[in-house]
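Supplementary Note 3. Input sequence used for the single-chain structure prediction.
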Amino acid sequence: MLELEHGFRVADVHTRLDPDEEAVAVRGRQVSPERLEREMHQAGVERAAASPGRTPADEGYLRANNAVARLSVDRPLLAFARLGGPRSVHRVVGPLVNPIVRPKSHHTTAGDVEQYAYDDRYHGFTLDPAHDGLPTESVVDQLAAVGDPVLVHAGADCPPDAVADTLLDRGFPVVLTSFGGYPLQEELMTSALEMLDAYDDLYLDTAYVPDRDILEQGLLEHPDRILFGSGAPSVHPNVGVMGVLTLDVPEDSMRRVFTKNPARVVPGLLPDL
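The predicted structure, written as C-alpha cells, is reproduced below.
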C-alpha cells in the first residue's frame, strides 16, 4: 500500500497487538509488531497506543499485558494494560441495584492497577466491559488514584450511558472507542457526543467510524475532545487517516484530532510537542 503524504503529525490512541499464537487464535488476525509498525509508517502515524487483543474469558491479561509491553520497547508503541473484572455491563443499573460480585483469580485487582501504573512500560489502561467484564469498585478507585487514561470499548454491547454510570466523573480521562457506537450505531454516537457537554474527562476516538457527518459534527462541535484512533490492525491505519483527511473541516481541526488532542490525553504519544 502506498505511503500517505499529508503533512500532519499523527498519534493513534487505538491499536491492538496480538503478542502470541494463542491471542491470534482468539482474535483471528495475526499482525506482528513489525507489520503494525510498517503499516503505521505507511499512514504517517508517528506513535500509537497498543493493547493486547482478547484472551479466553477465564485467563486474564497479565501475561498478554507483559508481552505487549515487552514488544513495545524500542518501537513507536505505547503499551496500555488491559483489565478485566467480575461485573456484567448488563446488570449496571445503579449502585443500589448491582448485585454483590466476587472477583476471580484472573480478574484485575487494585494492586495490579497500582503496579501497572508505576511501571514505566505502561501509559494507560484498556477496558472491554462486554467481553472482559467491568472491574470492581476498588479497581475503579485505584484508576482514579492513578489518573492515567482509560480506553473503553463502547458500543451496542456497552452503551455510553453504562460507561457514564460506572466510570465517568471519577477523575481520570475516559476515551470511548468508535464514538461510543460500534458497530455503526448512529444513535449511540449521537448520545456520546451529547455526553461531552456533561463530562469534562470524556473523549471519543474515531476508530471504525465511516460516517462523515458524525465525524464532522464531533470535530466542529467538540474540537478538543475527539482523538484519532485507527483500530489497527482490523483496519489499516491508512483507512483511518484518510477518513479524517477527507472531512470538510478546517485544517486546525485536523491538527487537533491527529496531534494535539491525543498528545494531551496520552502525553507519551508525542512527547516533544
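Confidence is low (pLDDT under 50) at residues 91-97. The longest helix spans residues 251-265.
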